[in-house]
Amino acid sequence: MTRRIAVLDAPTNLGLRPPTATSVPGCAKAPGALRDHDLLARLRARDAGCLTPPRYDPGDWRPGDGVCHAREISGYSALLADRIGAIIDRGEFPLVLGGDCSVLLGSALAMHRLGEAVGGRIGLVFVDGHSDFRHPGNASYVGAAAGEDLALVTGRGQADLAAIEGRRPYFRDIDVVVLGIRAQDEYRLDLQAAGITTRPVPALRAEGAARTAQWAHEQLADCAGYWVHIDVDVLDPAVMPAVDAPDPGGIAFAELEILLAGLVDTPHCLGVELTVFDPDYDPDGSYAAEIVNTVVAGLAPVSTPEAAPPRLLPASPPPQTPRPQRSRPAGMPGALSLLGSVGGAAGASGGLGPRRTASGGGPATTGGPPSNGGPVSDGPASDEGPSNLGPAVSGAAALTGDPVAGGAAVSAGGPVVDGSAPGAPVQPGRASGRPERPAVEPVGPPAGAGPGLLRRVSPLDDDTPEDAPRSADGPSPSSAGIA
């Protein structure tokens, strides 16, 4: 099944240093810039509003004073955790638009609350160009929470940020996977000493984005679920310079798209946050457009029902010998007339016996809810996105308006009409006109992998209204990349 995405703006810039003595960080404008490129419409997402942050005012902060804006960030994080928790309680998938990386504190607090509620641990997939692991134990002083967020959410640093509500740590070291840091990251040895699993860019590219997503999921197999943090500075400055601290050696948009799709293509992924994009460095909006394209394609496994895969249709049954017609008294209605009120054209499609689905399975049930085009697969999405192959519909089913389980019906020896290809030639006993899709490597982990205490709701339990928005956008790799 799919989950409806809810987009929540968290336009805080409290965790960054001022770019100049007379300016403020521009990442607070990021949610608006991304919305301007029809992000919500393309995701068919619910607008979960905006959590307005406190004023950015470093005042007379000096090195040695601790984290700047600590009191404001702490209060904002608690409110953000409330909003994220409310989205998850509705059965929706939160997409949080930062803002700087200090939004991770609010997400982490929400995940710790959730883990306590379900009786399990929640993990973190940290996709970032920098480790953000500065803390009093490895630096002479701290100051910008956006450069210390991973340290804070793993319990390192001052208590008013690392232990909000007395919860410390929000994520255990063994429940964190770091992806995309540069090979020369200054805190890489500290991460290793802490037991935090990492895969820097060289290893990520060597293994591939799809396998890296699978690997990250396997590292968190003991968790009830996980949250995904994405700092767009994981991208190389050649394709994404609009960040506060660009660092060469990053990945391409296409790689981020595949990585994101693999990470979210499982019910264990609880939500995503996107941080650090600064529209002040994007005057024509081209980088915002690329980010939106990547996010829409990467979140397709969450928002887009997968088309039913090609099925082998059952062979046409042998022709049945017609039974001799018995005479009946004058005025007695015929059998088809009697059946018209309960079976419609059932007699025309092969009699009163159980109908068989296009998958070649057993009888199709008639007491369940009507299908909306076929079940949604819990399996991994392919690299080429959802199939456009429509369900095969028999003439009888089309006439009666009676869909069969799986969204396709086959008449007894009759032709099969491919509903996705109007006007295509009809051939008896097989889907018409379309070649079978080649087998491809899955983008991400199978939905059933890992024990996971947070399960996907089955289609019969899904209380999402049928008219709820669903995304029809499939993954379309970004054109930008690194040569």
From TrEMBL:
It holds the Pfam family Arginase. The keyword NADP does not apply. Keywords: Hydrolase, Manganese, Metal-binding. Belongs to the arginase family. It comes from Micromonospora siamensis. Residues 307-322 have a biased composition (Pro residues). One of its GO terms (cellular component) is cytoplasm. PROSITE patterns: ARGINASE_2. Residues 307-483 are annotated as: Disordered. Residues 323-340, 366-380, 401-421 have a biased composition (Low complexity). Residues 341-365 have a biased composition (Gly residues). This is Arginase.
